[in-house]
Amino acid sequence: MSDPNKDWLEEELENLQDLEAPKTLLPKVMKKVHQRAQKAWWARMTESRADLLRSFVLGVSVFLLVLFFLIDPAQFFSRVPGASALLNLIPLLLDAAKTALFGAKVFNFSLLGLLAPAIVFSYIFLVATASAIQHLANARK
Amino acid sequence: MIAAATLFLSFFHDREGFGLDREMAEDEEFEMFIRSYQNMVFSVSARIVGNLTDAEDITQEVFIKAYQRFKELRNSGTIGGWLKTVATNLSINHLNRYRARWRFFSEQAEPVEIAVEIESESDRKEALELAIRKLPDAQRVPLVLFHFQDMSYEEIAAKLHVSMTKVKSDIHRGRETLKKRLTK
After folding, report:
1. Is the pTM of this model over 0.90?
2. For residue B97, what is the nearest residue in chain A, using CA coordinates?
């Protein structure tokens, strides 16, 4: 006898059985399992611990960056003969680039003023296009 | 001397054979395990993500995770619950990834109308399944967790990081939408 407190939808939801899994599922899983078993232990570990590995690499990178500023490797290079010339060249190149970006004019606009929005817009455009393609592909499924 | 060498070699041959047999037996056991639970895992994923192709991918992922822990899982009495939890979490993660990318566009999308002619009991069940899959994510996910996973409002609110009032109203709205679509 059905429960009088339940409406027809609730009863129909309760009576729904499990959906049938696709026939392709089992062979696909077994294939992946066998492929995984054939991989070396370190490859398997990087697969299953991808997030942990990513965080570890990020941590090491930040540590190296901080170390870079603390140690200042330029001081070691400055003692190497000929290296000081290279170290002097880098600020010159940076200065030249800065002057070109801020000083050069195209139709009365600075080069930086034109390049920056172009870079930002092209980035947004690429992200939107990639998302649109993925959305369309998902909608077709 | 030759006899000893033969014995020695046969010992290793047997061990190798034994290893292969054991691997095959484990594979067979895992296949049986998939056969027993694949419909349940697939249903959980399909009803949460509302897309059969994505549900198949998620189901594969669930079983690969299960394979990694098969030794401890096969003797566990809570294997069904473990599979359901993993399938639910992976499905919700999948939706969150997708939704974050598509929030702007999808919230403006119109709901899709369903065209299924209901003639028999199985047609009706199929129509209900389809209607669930076509519900907006915000209504479908709490409704599925409530009706198919027997989760309480509090548990759903905690899982989806939303208020309990929102869970209740989303489930109510989902049920109303289903009723409207099925009585048309």
Report:
1. no
2. A131
